[in-house]
Design brief:
Blueprint lengths: L3 H27 L12 H5 L4 E10 L2 E10 L9 E9 L4 H4 E13 L2 E23 L6 E27 L3 E24 L5 E9 L2 E14 L4 E12 L3 E12 L5 E12 L7 E16 L1
Length: 299
């Protein structure tokens, strides 16, 4: 005869097994799920991580440089008066081999969080020569006398720019910043000329003109980057300024490639323009436009 204790033990085994299985299932269902691994920070995220990031950007800008110059030819015959002459000096990339005397270009950027400090320096020294015709006023201003001028000009410009920026929007792959700053243009032009005046009876005068205006302007603008994937990006920049000139503006845009270590290469089209110098200034306007190739690295 089977004892009552043994019957109870045998009868309780299935119940104990069922309870244990249910408890294990309940524990498994309430256990926290393993969190998904966090995505790696993008290059834009690294720029806004709160640390100080300092980058230098040597670059090569190959602009066409065009400036309008107004000057007076002295030493004309008595009674003929002086000759007010306006001419253009223009040098393009195709002329650089013979006309570019020296050049240097460097930009920098310091960023900490949403704030940044950026600067730029451009130095170019180019030469140009040409021949053009005009007319000058004869005695008492009633007679127009034809004249031919042969010029040899050397234009040296040092453009300094310094600005502070603040991010108004940024995400994992794009940002936009506003900036305010200052740009200075010391422009030195040395012009040698030979003037042949008259048609039937001619005379020749020659001389030199040195022009050195200085323009200081306050600038306001926007800049930023838009990443198209993990490495390719599109930089953009535009500003406008007022001060010594009625208006000045600069802009560029193009494409770049960012390496994983943070260094980048860029190819853009850049333009810098000055308009509306004072009426007494011998320089009336200055335009620079052309391709730019640069490389940035962190310090």
């Amino acid at each position: 005869m089977i004892s009552t204790r043994r019957l109870l033990s045998v009868g309780l085994l299935p119940a104990a097994f069922a309870f244990g299985t249910a408890a294990a299932s309940a524990q498994e269902s309430t256990a926290p799920a393993t969190p998904a691994p966090a995505s790696s920070p993008t290059l834009m995220d690294r720029a806004y991580d709160g640390n100080v990031h300092v980058t230098l950007a040597p670059y090569l800008w190959l602009p066409t440089i065009r400036t309008n110059i107004k000057y007076t030819i002295p030493k004309l015959p008595t009674g003929a008066g002086g000759a007010s002459v306006a001419t253009n000096v223009q040098v393009g990339p195709s002329d650089y081999l013979t006309n570019l005397n020296s050049a240097g270009m460097l930009g920098f950027n310091i960023r900490k969080g949403d704030a940044e400090l950026l600067g730029d320096y451009i130095f170019t020294n180019v030469s140009s020569n040409g021949t053009f015709g005009t007319t000058i006023s004869g005695p008492l201003g009633h007679v127009k006398i034809p004249a031919t001028f042969t010029t040899n000009a050397r234009v040296a410009s040092s453009i300094w720019e310094l600005a502070a920026g603040l991010s108004i929007a940024h995400g994992h792959n794009a940002d936009a910043n506003i900036l305010i700053g200052w740009r200075q243009l010391p422009l030195t032009t040395n012009l040698d000329y030979t003037a042949t005046v008259g048609s039937r009876v001619t005379f020749t005068r020659s001389g030199s003109v040195r022009i050195a205006p200085l323009a200081n302007d306050v600038i306001f603008g926007f800049n930023g980057k838009v990443f198209l994937g993990d490495h390719f990006f599109a930089p953009y920049y535009i500003d406008m300024g007022v001060g010594a000139t009625q208006s000045t503006w600069e802009g560029y845009g193009g494409a770049g490639y960012a390496f994983n270590h943070g260094q980048t290469i860029v190819a853009t089209f850049r333009t810098l323009n000055y308009y509306g110098f004072s009426s007494s200034s011998p320089v009336q306007k200055l335009n620079m436009w052309g391709p730019l190739f640069g490389y940035t690295f962190g310090l």
